[in-house]
């Protein structure tokens, strides 16, 4: 740890956001680079956050009737090619195994970029009757997609994720599943990560390779760029036909299943950094933070200070709080800066004088405020409730930022102006035509993020890009 | 599920053990085959067991100061080649990626067969001073080793495992770590899986590629063959020198670190099947069983039966028990056979007459005994304590089997005779010479499983294979 803090300063967020991001990734010891380009090492601090996300989401998945499985990491090229749109989307990004056990392989194997084809092959084999439906499987794994430009957590040649794959006897149930998972992603972002999401449906241009509909949750970073943070796809019967996933229905007829898939990845870690972080480092939402409170000792060599700190730690742990004591031989100033860089939500300062007076000082990372608090049997409750308060404050701040960065625009030039000057989302009217999307992308380097689901243009509204009658409300942004 | 049970019969264990094993893997819906040879699909029922093993062990790892990380799945061939013994051991089993993103790679990449080299590269980079030590990282992932002959869970081209990699400032601490992990594996097998292990040190011939010492835990299958179930390696400074892992010690001198690694895999699932299973299917140790108790309804269409079953389920769940209600429209006989095939430790039978009389019938999968038990507020405690009882009974039975299949032998011919007629372990004297091991392997197709750690030959004892003075007590067996 020590050597990373020789120079604690990081680049200012508003001066060079990209460099600020990289500085935090390194100085908070979230990741390191490996000798293979685009393949990062998830160090304990970021991996512990991913574990917290996993535990939270896995519980939700299981409560909603999903089961975990593990599928092979290698897919025969011939299998990947079975669904035309799908292979077109993924083939250019594949890592291909051509040798195994010293021999050349006849059918090369692709490291999974996603596992639709494997789940289809399995389901085609094990499902015969309506009694076997639905099947709702999920897996936690890593996938490989060969990327030219990579950034830690945001875009990598390998990343960790979960991928759910479900099949259903009817269309309605499959569509409900697609939306349910979108809702679970949205709720997780809100309740665990304190991140408000813009949600909606992707345009045909932006949807997943092979999907009929893709729903997305999109987070807004501090620099005004959007980050696609989770997607849920409805496939209809496209894969079912390509892979012959049929079942005998109650009416004694063979039918094709309806299918969904959905995933979130370690991109969420990037979202946490870029939504909440500041010029002193990470600011972690307390429910996902590996360490929720750090006890920093002032004059730890004084008799009784260390003992009191560990007694406090025990007390707080019994209240369900994740606590660390910083009993290193560094100065308090160094320890404060270290705790700030790592974004630990609550800092508890404890010195001999505090102990004498029966209190400690509690500082909140998210707004820097400090308060003197009595050390007694209510401290656990106090800190627990502070965790909720901090969570709410962080969510509220991010929500205000999001709300103030959605700008309704109805003229073409204004779209570019808002993106340049203010960033965030441009909300506008859309004809539903690809040409309109392409024109905006070309002119302003912005992509459509999603189509609003519950809001439609007023009578007579016009798409500002192609001047055709508007059918939808759509959101554009520059994005990661 | 239904279609797998049209014919419920499985091959008898004593008639054809290999076929019995495969039958169980399929009929208990533990796994399925994929279209890539040697790569299996872990279906929900086996994956849930693996999750239970993960949760149990991960807690132990964290309690003993280990942290989880995630390393890249791809290793440059050039990096793998840095430690000579290591690459010799693994190169023949590697899957090699030669194409990425449509381009040929200059330095081919190997899918990790194990990750020593990656951890070494990281540690060399992030460790400078004695203050940075120890580093105790672990990861849960899958690895790929190209195998010619594969069997579900026992030997596959891809398997799930955990691999711990630690570095230490001194030899003593590293050796203690090696033994601590061996102990954790041994305890997990005993306390979670009800499997007694034979533990000891591997001979030089059988140790891990690149290790100075390998400790092993070995389980004994019902057919008398051994299964290596977990290993813990002490590397000394071999990798440290190859990878230049140095640190500045307290005495201001640059020194090489001392290193360990250790792993267990989904082989443990194979051990569970082959230690405890019988001719009616799986017999699961209750602490690892995904479903600990199944409530089977008799005449479920009768009023109140279903409601009572779900009330019971809720009551048992509140006592921390994993319960399922089988409310399918199958016959009770079918449901009983199904629960037996899946090895569910406790079956609770519930019909209208039982409810009237305020009791239910509880059957134990491990010994087939049944008992009538009152349905009242003590039922949760009763079932919880029954779980412990079943665990103890299963462990005791397996321990008796192990103990009665360790045969002390002091003549060469007797070794073969015992292996042929009785199976299990032959315990004998060893000179410490490779030639002795090779002679036994050649003559009897048995490998040394481990050297006893706390027991030595008496004065004058002779190795029966090479007639040289004995230095060690050693165990041989035919093995998976």
The main sheet of chain A orders its strands as 3-7-8-14-11-10-9
Low confidence ranges of chain A: 1-7
What is the SS-derived class of chain A?
alpha+beta
Q: How many domains make up the 3D coordinates of chain A?
A: 3
With helices defined by DSSP (H or I, 4 residues minimum), what is the helix count of chain A?
A: 14
Task: Tell me which CATH architecture of the largest domain in chain A applies here.
Answer: 2-Layer Sandwich
Distance between the termini of chain A: 30 Å
CATH topology of the largest domain in chain A: BirA Bifunctional Protein, domain 2
Average pLDDT reading of chain A: 95
Q: State which percent range the strand residues of chain A make up.
A: 25-35%
Largest interface, counted with CB-CB under 8 A? A-B, 62 and 62 residues
CATH superfamily of the largest domain in chain A: Bira Bifunctional Protein, Domain 2
Residue share in helix of chain A:
25-40%
Oligomer: homodimer
Largest sheet of chain A: 7 strands, mixed
CATH class category of the largest domain in chain A: Alpha Beta
Q: Give the beta-strand count of chain A.
A: 23
List keywords for this structure.
BirA Bifunctional Protein, domain 2; Rossmann fold; 480 residues; 3 domains; cytoplasm (chains A, B); alpha+beta; 7-stranded mixed β-sheet; globular; Proline--tRNA ligase (chains A, B)
How would you explain this protein's 3D organization?
The structure is a homodimer of 480-residue chains. Helices cover 34% and strands 27% of the residues of chain A. Chain A has 480 residues and is an alpha+beta fold. The first copy, chain A, folds into three domains: 17-276, 2-Layer Sandwich (BirA Bifunctional Protein, domain 2); 293-386, Rossmann fold; 405-477, 2-Layer Sandwich (Translation Initiation Factor IF3). Chain A has a seven-stranded mixed β-sheet with strand order 3-7-8-14-11-10-9, with helices on both faces. The model of chain A is unreliable at 1-7 (pLDDT under 50). Chains A and B meet through strand 2, helix 2, strand 3, strand 4 and strand 5 of A and strand 2, helix 2, strand 3, strand 4 and strand 5 of B. Strand 5 of chain A pairs antiparallel with strand 5 of chain B. Chains A, B: GO terms for molecular function: ATP binding; catalytic activity, acting on a protein; proline-tRNA ligase activity; transferase activity. Chains A, B: Homodimer. Chains A, B: It catalyses: tRNA(Pro) + L-proline + ATP = L-prolyl-tRNA(Pro) + AMP + diphosphate. Chains A, B: Residues 47-285 form the Aminoacyl-transfer RNA synthetases class-II family profile domain.
